[in-house]
Amino acid sequence: MTAPRPHPPARLRPPPIRLAVRAIVLRQGRLLLVNTWPGRTDFWSVPGGGANPHESLPANLIREVHEETGLTVAVGAPCLVNEFHDPGGTFHQVDIYFRCTLIAGDPEGAWTDPEGVVSHRRWVTPEGMAGLRVKPDSLAAIAWSEGAIGYDPLEPIVRA
Fold first, then answer.
1. Euclidean distance between CA atoms 8 and 156, whole angstroms
2. Which residue among 32, 69, 95, 130 is the one 20 to 30 A from 10 at the CA level?
3. Burial class (CB in 10 A: 0-12, 13-18, 19+), 139
4. Angle at 143 between CA 108 and CA 155, to 5 degrees
5. Can you name the residues that pair with 17 across neighbouring β-strands?
């Protein structure tokens, strides 16, 4: 019988893979997008964020959407898994995208993200989205294709 292998010291271990949840919310044929860097509106994605341990993925997503947009959603089925990573670094995040339905809140009203990350939101058509810098690359193909399911392995993270 061999002895168990000791774990490497914490300083030598790579950081854990981060898990995040994201909401695909359509309203009148338009997709909800938010800016993803504080104060910048040149890069867009759908609302969502990191998942907290011991909280279901749908509960995490409802919280994140409300924080980032002031809206309340019902969480439906997952439709996309996307992996973002830094090929030259240690960052690796797995995003799970869920189809969601808007159930409360003013989609055009004012709100404030308590974390200060999201400052703008917009509703876009597929044509309007084509002119924007949006991640992940497969978002448009999945968002407007009811029943579509996708997986993007190891999409490089975007640099500022």
1. 27
2. 95
3. buried
4. 110
5. none
- Integer Cα distance of 96 and 87 in angstroms: 20
Residue 143 token pair: 């968002």
Summarised one tens digit per residue, pLDDT across range 112-156 is 898 888 989 999 999 999 989 999 989 999 999 989 999 988 888
Dig out the tokens for 140 from the structure.
Answer: 């448009």
Q: Is the bond preceding residue 78 a cis peptide, omega within 30 degrees?
A: no
pTM: 0.88
Each residue of 99-122: pLDDT tens digit?
A: 999 999 999 998 889 888 898 999
Domains of the chain listed by start with CATH number: 15-156 (3.90.79.10)
